[in-house]
């Protein structure tokens, strides 16, 4: 796996934006047998999700989160040297949504802006890219934006995904600081699993067409169109159990941490049953493995910042340094983890957004 230790970078704040009002799982599963809905609800740990309204995008959610974050920090917008947006549901095919957000936030023309097409592992990869930009001397302050509107890709007739995914947008502020503890990153990928979690149509291999929007019943008995998300849940489950254990162990080794010194193992919120199985297999203390998929659903790359801004909010702002191991994994296949000590967080919160374009 790729490994990297980065110095002189600190996280100053995190704001997450979720859209509208929470939607109960039972409402999302109206097309399915009630017993199947209850089984999914109890197994995955679902209760509700947040989903965008027509006209609302991942760019909107990230823009509102970023604006709130900058206000809380009191940062001059001209002091931002760059923004990185991690999303798989951009506002446009082109230009990059990061450029659109750059304009909406009124940032300096000297600031860089670019998109990264990554899903489940994207927040940790984004932290790595943002921290690299700062550690290299390219930037002093960087905004990492991460968000998806996965609900736009779902068939309501596919029970493997229809109730699982929620939407969110997040913003994380990183800053140059010579007193900051080091960040230890470990990353990897296996492109042979690219077709286990995929939207087949809509890109340039299979362009949108009337036929691409026609739903048919697949070999897995789910009804979806090529423009909607396909997930091989069994393959994803096996991939997670195979890869995440070594990922965590290598990250601990790189950081010279023992498991006992970690205050929180923050995993991508893919599936409650999967996370519980993973924690038991790795013999992790349950009270150090927060699970909030019941509140937000699977929010793709937004799930780890939602853990930070919600479940860990008081601890991050409490003045006591927190040793955290963030581990993300999934679509691609790709995976990434970072061991990081977080302190002096100015703001960590979740806001509600009803912004539309």
Helices and strands, with pairings:
Layout: E1 2-6, E2 9-19, E3 23-24, H1 25-28, H2 34-44, E4 48-49, H3 58-73, E5 82-86, H4 97-105, E6 112-116, H5 122-135, E7 141-148, E8 168-176, E9 183-189, E10 197-198, E11 216-217, E12 223-224, E13 230-231, H6 233-255, E14 264-267, H7 272-282, H8 293-296, H9 303-311, H10 313-316, E15 322-330, E16 334-342, E17 347-353
Parallel strand pairs: 2-17, 5-6, 5-7, 14-15
Antiparallel strand pairs: 1-9, 2-8, 3-4, 7-8, 9-16, 10-13, 11-12, 15-16
Distance between the termini: 41 Å
Query: What is the tally of beta strands?
Result: 17
Instruction: Give the strand order, joined by hyphens, for the main sheet.
Output: 6-5-7-8-2-17
Number of helices: 10
Element order: H for helix, E for strand = EEEHHEHEHEHEEEEEEEHEHHHHEEE
Low-confidence stretches: none
**Protein structure class:** alpha/beta
Radius of gyration (Å): 19 Å
């Amino acid at each position: 796996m790729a490994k990297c230790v980065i110095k002189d970078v600190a996280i100053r704040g995190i704001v997450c934006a979720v859209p509208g009002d929470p939607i109960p799982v039972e409402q999302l599963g109206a097309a399915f047998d009630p017993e199947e809905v209850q089984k999914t609800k109890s197994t995955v740990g679902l209760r509700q999700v947040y989903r965008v309204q027509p006209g609302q995008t991942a760019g909107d959610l990230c823009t509102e989160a970023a604006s709130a974050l900058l206000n809380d920090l009191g940062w001059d917008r001209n002091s931002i040297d760059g923004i990185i947006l991690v999303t798989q549901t951009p506002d446009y095919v082109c230009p990059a949504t990061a450029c659109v957000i750059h304009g909406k936030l009124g940032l300096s023309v000297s600031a860089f802006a670019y998109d990264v097409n990554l899903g489940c592992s994207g927040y940790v990869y984004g932290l790595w890219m943002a921290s690299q930009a700062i550690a290299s001397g390219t930037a002093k302050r960087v905004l990492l934006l991460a968000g998806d509107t996965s609900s736009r890709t779902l068939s309501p007739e596919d029970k493997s995904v229809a109730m699982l995914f929620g939407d969110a947008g997040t913003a994380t502020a990183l800053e140059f600081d010579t007193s900051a503890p080091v960040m230890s990153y470990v990353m990897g990928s296996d492109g042979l699993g690219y077709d286990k979690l995929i939207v087949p149509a809509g890109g340039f291999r299979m362009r949108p067409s009337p036929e691409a929007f026609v739903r048919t019943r697949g070999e897995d008995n789910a009804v979806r169109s090529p423009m909607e998300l396909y997930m091989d849940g069994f393959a994803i489950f096996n991939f997670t159990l195979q890869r995440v254990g070594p990922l965590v162990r290598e990250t601990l080794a790189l950081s010279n941490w023992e498991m006992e010194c970690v205050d929180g193992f923050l995993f991508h919120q893919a599936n409650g049953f999967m996370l519980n199985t993973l924690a038991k297999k790795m013999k992790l203390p349950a009270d150090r493995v927060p699970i909030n998929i019941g509140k937000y659903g699977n929010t793709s790359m937004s799930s780890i910042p939602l853990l930070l801004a919600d479940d860990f909010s008081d601890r991050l702002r409490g003045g006591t340094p927190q040793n955290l191991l963030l581990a993300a994994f999934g679509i691609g296949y790709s995976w990434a983890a970072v061991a990081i000590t977080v302190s002096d967080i100015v703001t960590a919160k979740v806001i509600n957004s009803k912004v539309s374009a």
